[in-house]
Amino acid sequence: MTRITAYIGIGSNLDNPLQHAISAIRDIAALTDTRLTAYSRWYQSAPSGPAGQPDYINGVAAISTGLTPLELLSALRKIEDRHGRVRGERWGARTLDLDILLYGNISIASSSLQIPHPRLAERNFVLYPLADLTPDLVLPNGKTLAELLANVPSDGIVPLSPGD
User: Fold this and answer.
1) Which entry of 99, 119, 132, 155 is annotated as an active-site residue?
2) Choosing from 77, 82, 97, 119, which is the catalytic residue?
3) CA-CA distance, 13 to 72, in Å (whole number)?
4) Does residue 94 carry a catalytic annotation?
5) Is residue 119 a part of any domain in this protein?
6) At what angle do helices 69-82 and 17-29 cross, to 10 degrees?
7) Which terminus of the chain is more exposed, N or C, with fewer CB under 10 A?
C-alpha cells in the first residue's frame, strides 16, 4: 500500500492546552495504518479568532499514513471528540483542534476537506512549527515554506522551552 507523508496542525487553548496537545501526539501515533515520524516543538500564540480567548498552544505532527485524506480527517475528528471538542463558534476556544495541513503533494478542494489547509500561508502558528520539521518544504503550488514565512509576522508567537 502506498504511504503518504502528511502534516497535522495541533492546537488547544482550553483545559490545560499543553496536555491536550501532548496527548494528541500519542493519539495520532496510535492511528491505524499510520506512523508518527516527527513533531515540532510547542508554541504559544495569541488567538486569531474572537476576542477574550486564552492563548493557544500549537505544534505540527508529521506522519506516514496509508489512510486516505477523508479517512484521516474522520480519525482526527474522533480524536478531537475524545478530547471534549465542542464545535460551536468559528475560530472559538477549543480543547483540541487537529487540521490536515498537507497530504503529500496533493491538492483537494471539496465541501468537506481542503488540502493544503486554506489558511496555511497566513498562520505563523502553523508555519513556524512546520519549519521545525521540514524547513525546505515546497507546497503543491510551488511556493516554498521560506517564502511563506517571509510574509507572516514572527511577533505573537513564542516557542515554549522544555518544562514549560
Assistant:
1) 99
2) 97
3) 23
4) yes
5) yes
6) 140
7) N
